[in-house]
Amino acid sequence: MLRRKARRAQEDDHGDPLDAAQERRVRAVLALGGVPQTDLPDGVQQVRLRLLERAAKGYEAPRDVSAWAAVVASNLAMDWHRAQRRQERIGERLASLRQLEHPSGEDSSVLSLAVAQGLDELPDAQRQVLVLRFYADLPVRSIAQELGVPEGTVKSRLHTAVRALRARLHEDEVV
Amino acid sequence: MTAGHETHGEYDGPDALMAAITGEPLPDGAGAELRAEHRAAEADVALLREQLGMIGDALAEEQALEATAPVRRPRARRPRRTAPRAPRNRRAVRRFALAGLAVAAVGGVFSGMIWLVGQAGGGADDAGASSAEAGGKAADSAAGSPFSSPGYLACTRLVAEGDVTAVQRVAGEAGQERITLHVTRSYTPERTKPQLTLTVDEEALSAPLRKGDHVLVAVPRHASTPDYVLTGEKAIARERAALARALPEASAVPCE
After folding, report:
1. Beta carbons of B103 and A91 less than 8 Å apart
2. For this UniProt entry, which segments traverse the membrane (chain B) (predicted)?
3. Could you give the CA distance from residue B113 to residue A86 in angstroms, rounded to a whole number?
4. What tens digit of pLDDT does each residue of B115-173 get?
5. A-chain residues within 8 Å CB-CB of B104?
6. Is ipTM beyond 0.85?
7. Which CATH number fits domain B90-250: 2.40.50.100, 2.30.30.40, 2.30.29.30, 3.10.180.10?
8. Is B157 helix (H, G, I), strand (E, B) or coil?
9. Domain containing residue A106
């Protein structure tokens, strides 16, 4: 039974509970949450560990491993902030990246930086739901259930966060 | 539930932005103004979603040129020892330039983004100029090197001299070494971190690097590894002279 459940949680042939796409998604959620680059591998390992622990305890594998992993990663980012009392300024990190390919043209980097800097300014709780909603593409209801908060709270945080980012974008005349 | 039914926190009543966020429909009786707001909000939310995807994917990647961060696996590349680097994509350059402007506009400080300042002056050319004058023949002998080409220099994000303080073989990557460089002189950009970690393809080296070696390295703007690693005081001295002449011109040359 345990082996069967563990196997269900393991999507690839190498026994890794996260496939490459899921790992990449976890890394992105952690990074968007402000976890520094150097700590991303640890964060990914934490997510793997929790997934394996679930299987070891006999729990059913998450129905949607990607969504589950994104929520766990976002919570890890929140915990990381609380423990470390600092976060990586992703606007600066993004600026240091050499390439950000985008078919729409050269203005995309300006836009990305504006968004990244806007993210830096958001309270952690708002950033968390924003990332889960628009990066991980989770419905509001799922976010509320996973985080254990009312839907209205999720909506309120999203509304405030998106409004702030819109204001920043338009103030900067980026769009 | 429609967006108009949600009342919580800072919004109340029909809310175009909330509808765009949740994907819920507007109330049946929504007027033209609200629908216009909704369209604008949907466009912004779509843009935000797209940008988060791009940023997340970009941040999820590892960095190569970082003092402490893990180093990105580079593409295998043959060294270019004589020919100037081919012009690169103009659009990419403009994107990068705009990115720099954006950072400057918000007053951000970023040390990782390497920027070609390139005007004569600063640390790049003082000693190099005297070297060029004193060692005219030697400088001439370097005329065919990449460092004598403004076009090549315009397309680099790092040109620096330094002392190798550590050499490590990259685990699982045959033919690659990770070196730690104590920078003694940065040409491009004018200032950089005092310690850099670089992954070097062994095929770019004429001889294995060792701790204590003095090197001159060049990293193209869109590469993760140096395409030029030069060791030896005499050889580097010749390149200094070439750099002193070419760097001022490089600032006026677009990287195309």
Report:
1. yes
2. 96-117
3. 22
4. 222 222 233 333 333 333 333 333 333 445 678 888 888 888 888 898 888 888 776 66
5. none
6. no
7. 2.40.50.100
8. strand
9. 89-175
